[in-house]
Design a protein that fits this description.
The structure is a homodimer.
Chain A lengths: L7 H19 L6 H8 L3 H7 L3 H24 L6 H18 L1 H11 L5 H28 L8 H27 L3 H22 L14 H7 L1
Helix pairs in contact in A: 1-2, 1-4, 1-6, 4-5, 4-7, 5-7, 7-8, 8-9, 9-10
């Protein structure tokens, strides 16, 4: 059967779609370039025209996931009617809404990402997310510091600190999901709530904000997320 | 010549000793399993009885280094003549001293660990280090909070936050080493100094300590480390 001629953009997108599906279904380590080639129904030559290696494909999957996540959040971060603290809170609220909307997919993603065979995938997505978020957070902190709304004399370093702390939220969400799936919903919700409150406190104190000004979480969020 | 019969513990320790020496002398990449086998004077079969791969051997080397570090640091953390803040500072001072003493080995270790092909290994060592450090830091924070020396109502969560931030120090040290090796020692030292100061500030603010009470770094440390 003759292969259908497709534009490079379409072909490249299809390869990333296939790779994403296979990575999450079977794990990154257990997916080969040949699996992707078969699933996408392209020739080996065509594949290597777009991606030099499985790692390059991983990079593309990670970057696209990060970009999708961030496009929506960036709009919130740029709302001109909000001050810097309002923008940070809008980011957290948006992130909570996304988490609830995408809870079933997120649960699968977490379960896939935290498998030992996916450490490389997880790290790459992390790095892509951090790289994409850094300028957004840095700009909020820069503006907030200039306006005297918060204290971050070195906004880029401060943004890196906040993003580093944020990594632990994903770890905690995964732990809470495991606990909840093992039957202890109450314990899991309490752990996640407590972790997110401490994360909020850490941000407030680090940026010298009044207690209660950062709303990382809201009452009932952890339970709703775990049950969604 | 007949091989001398040795106990499994002795043999395994000798292999790790040899690997450590060779990794640090020639670099991880340029050391083969055959080099280790030759240096340790064991058969190939004997080697693979103890370690399934070169990566397993590197993990053993790094884990042992981490354990050694922690043993010494634990003594500092338990010094009864110090209050909680003094114990945290003793940990940082001890960690700086170890870093300077072991700078050449550390540089090789970082260079090996931050290679893309070592992400899995890096992640595992990180986890081992975090798990081992958590009870030490938790206990310091618990005692400090009870004595009113610092504010950490949930000491274990607070300790996890501090350890999460600490992970970024290793990342930054590696970035600074790369920059320094590329010829920009001044830029590298400035970046590492600034990062460590911000890390100290983050800890002070998070634990509600007076400014300047946490001494993560000291003047000239970054440059001395990078040049060591």
């Amino acid at each position: 059967m003759a292969r259908i001629k497709k534009s490079p953009e379409v072909r490249s997108k299809e390869l990333i779609d296939c790779a994403e599906r296979l990575f999450f279904q079977h794990g990154y380590e257990d997916t080969t370039v040949n699996d992707v080639i078969r699933e996408a129904d392209v020739s080996k030559g065509a594949f290597y025209h777009y991606f030099v290696s499985k790692e390059a494909l991983l990079e593309a999957v990670a970057t696209r996931l990060a970009k999708r996540n961030l496009e929506e959040l960036q709009l919130l971060a740029e709302d001109p009617s909000l001050d810097a603290v309002g923008q940070l809170n809008a980011l957290f609220a948006g992130s909570r809404r996304l988490k609830l909307e995408m809870a079933p997919q997120l649960k699968n993603t977490f379960n896939a990402l935290f498998k030992p065979e996916n450490v490389v995938l997880y790290h790459r997505i992390d790095e892509a997310l951090q790289a994409a978020s850094l300028p957004i957070i840095t700009e909020i902190l820069r503006r907030g510091h200039a306006q005297g709304a918060l204290d971050a004399p070195d906004p880029e370093t401060a943004a890196m600190m906040l993003l580093q702390l944020r990594l632990s939220v994903a770890k905690m969400m995964h732990k809470a999901l495991q606990l909840s799936e093992a039957g202890d919903l109450d314990g899991a919700a309490a752990m996640l709530d407590s972790w997110m409150r401490t994360y909020g406190t850490a941000i407030e104190r680090f940026l010298k904000l009044p207690e209660g000004s950062i709303e990382v979480t809201e009452p009932g969020f952890a339970r709703t997320f775990l049950q969604a």
